[in-house]
Amino acid sequence: MGQTLSTPVTDKHSSTGSNDRLAFGQSAMQGWRVTMDDAHTTLLDVEEAPGIAFFAVYDGHGGDTVAKYSGDHLHKNIFADPAFGEKEFKTAIRNGFLETDRALHLDPDCNSESSGCTAITATITDKNILYVGNAGDSRAVLSRDGKAVAMSTDHKPTDFDESTRILFSGGYVENGRVNGLLATSRALGDFGFKLTDTSDPGDQIVIAVPDVVEHELTDEDEFLVLACDGIWDCMSSQHRRQHIDRRRMR
Fold this sequence. Notes:
alpha+beta; three-stranded antiparallel sheet; globular; manganese; hydrolase; PPM-type_phosphatase-like_dom; EC 3.1.3.16; protein-serine/threonine phosphatase
């Protein structure tokens, strides 16, 4: 989990896409990690639900297995949830996260104790309602009328509510990390922190339960940024908003 290269891999893999309603750009870089552990999903149109768009970033650690699996399956689990068909999007997103975590645990190729990923997702409905799902310390930031507006809250072990839950579940926080090891308090995978025999997914030391934020998009909303903590550790949300805005104007 903590291994790094002596020199970062700075090659960037980028793409763009658009339709008559939305446009996106994405870029990924391996950096100091031994392998590229991150994944992403960009869906301008959802086949199962016309008018729906979905985007996500999965920041992996301990290998790329969980991030890649999540990138392939989490959105499908959201769309397949009965609540999605009833337009109960918050419920569907929560259930989709938990179903993905459950499926990972049952898959012998994915259920190692050390591999995991954070997940930040954006679902945009045909009514221009944005739903942001977050488990971990990746972040969603909305640019609204020139200002950065947080659409998620970082799940850090040092947060009071998170540390209280960790302690109640039998874990501890040391040097800002769960059990001295993991820098995020919520994640998909990381089954070494999910050993409690319980039917409540919120009773584990590390949980995959997402926060889900709902926001009605208006003409004041310019763009949304989804990024892993490696970005936010180097730039404030407002700095990142300005950085992107300058390049959009070129």
